[in-house]
Design brief:
Structural class: mainly alpha
Number of strands: 0
Number of domains: 1
Largest sheet: none
Number of helices: 16
Order of helices and strands: HHHHHHHHHHHHHHHH
Radius of gyration: 19 Å
């Protein structure tokens, strides 16, 4: 985030991004597309960025939206869903092994088929955790722009493809936002405790360097308080919609200062590695579905190797089990966080400081929570 990000001139790209995102979200939502507010905003902002518009969501504002999304998604938890966590350990083991396999397979594809160096191939293949990946790649011998483009294409395709695929397969349900027994103004002390605890958790995870802390911290606190029956209050639905639109703008802005020509250069590698990722992940989805009594749609959203925040919004919009999905993506983040430094050391033992990205793309990178 630049120093003048909140000046009138600095706020202009933010306002433009939100207007474009709102138009895209409304278009998709009223067209009946599943998870329309988020998917539409992401697609419209990505297209605008590729056309040369400077779209940007300041880091501070993005973190507020992540906190709100965490609270909202955690609010879906009930005592019943929390008790259901005891049946998930084997599935979490399967996803942990699956994500390592996905990374190895996609990295091998990029290295063998497209001739990428091992370091760049590894960072591009990692499922999610783009903030951690880009921070490490920036200090090593890796093509950071290629990594961000490949990962961004994966996020956009999964954000649009997963809900569409589930809908075509007949697994979708009406979009539904979590609604507590009382509104924000009916239980102000519940709301104050919920927000204070969520903000505190977000800051603690951020201070210790946990990937996605501004999202996961509030989600865990909200799920604990709602699941334990300590609070029964929800944030306004308009705030949930606004946060979904902002999430789309944040991810769509990853294409800032990326031309169509540059995108085409990396498109074969992006789509090829995505096909490998989806194929390997599908094997583990069917393995988990065969061994465990779990819904296939919940497994698809849980094992989809995309951005955590996007997958959680899809779970919410498609009326899946966000607690189940969140637990699995949390496991994925932990596995990636532990394994990535080892993988980086094995693929390249010679750290090299990489050139900086353009200012707008660097700002978008710093904003990302996963």
């Amino acid at each position: 985030m630049t120093a003048n990000a909140y000046s009138p001139q600095g706020l202009r790209p933010f306002a433009e991004a939100m207007l474009i995102a709102a138009a895209g979200g409304a278009t998709f939502e009223y067209a009946g597309f599943p998870a329309g507010w988020m998917a539409g905003s992401l697609v419209f902002v990505a297209i605008a960025a590729l056309c040369g518009r400077q779209t940007h969501v300041p880091t501070g504002a993005a973190r507020l939206f992540f906190i709100a999304l965490g609270i909202i998604i955690g609010g879906v938890a009930t005592p019943e869903t929390v008790r259901g966590m005891t049946t998930w350990p084997l599935s979490i083991v399967i996803i942990s092994v699956g994500m390592v396999t996905v990374t190895v397979a996609a990295a091998g594809y990029l290295k063998l088929v497209h001739g990428w160096d091992a370091q760049t191939a590894l960072f591009a293949a990692v499922p999610g955790s783009l903030s951690q990946v880009s921070a490490m790649a920036a200090e090593r011998r890796a093509d950071l722009r290629a990594i961000i483009i490949v990962q961004t294409v994966r996020v956009i395709v999964l954000a649009v493809g997963v809900p569409l695929s589930l809908t075509l397969a007949g697994f979708d349900a009406p979009s539904q936002l979590p609604v507590g027994a009382r509104g924000a103004f009916e239980a102000p002390w519940h709301l104050a405790g919920l927000v204070a605890g969520s903000v505190a958790a977000a800051l603690v995870l951020y201070r210790i360097g946990f990937t996605g802390g501004f999202f996961f911290g509030p989600m865990v606190v909200s799920a604990f308080l709602h699941g334990g029956g300590f609070v029964d209050v929800s944030l306004p639905s308009w705030l949930a919609i606004l946060s979904m639109i902002a999430l789309g703008a944040i991810n769509g802005s990853r294409f800032n200062q990326t031309s169509f020509r540059m995108l085409v250069q990396y498109l074969k590698a992006s789509l090829g590695s995505l096909a490998v990722v989806i194929s390997v992940a599908a094997i583990f989805v069917f393995l988990a579905a065969s061994l465990l009594s779990l819904r296939i749609e919940d497994l698809v959203a849980s094992y989809a190797p995309g951005s955590v925040d996007v997958m959680m919004i899809l779970a919410l919009a498609l009326h899946l089990d966000p607690v189940f999905v969140g637990a699995h993506h949390l496991a994925r983040i932990l596995v990636v966080s532990l394994a990535l430094p080892l993988g980086a050391r094995l693929t390249d033992k010679r750290p090299l400081h990489h050139h900086k990205l353009p200012a707008s793309l660097e700002a978008a990178r710093q904003t990302l929570e996963d």
